[in-house]
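Lecture notes, part 5. Sequence design as translation. It can be helpful to think of inverse folding as translation between two languages: the language of shapes and the language of residues. The source text, in structure tokens, appears below.
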């Protein structure tokens, strides 16, 4: 069985959020609030992934 994986770093629904008060570290969140988001921008199995234009 082959499963399809995507990267959150190339998804249209991503947006960066700071993880420290000095804005030195960032991670990705998902505007669709899916739990499948990969904060590092790496691989995910998210079913609503959409390629960034």
């Amino acid at each position: 069985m082959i499963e399809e994986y995507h990267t959150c770093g190339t998804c249209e629904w991503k947006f960066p959020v700071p993880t420290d008060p000095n804005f030195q570290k960032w991670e990705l969140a998902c505007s669709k609030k899916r739990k499948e988001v990969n904060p590092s921008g790496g691989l995910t199995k998210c079913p609503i992934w959409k390629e960034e234009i």
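The translated text above is only one of many valid answers, since several sequences can fold into similar shapes. The radius of gyration is 12 Å.
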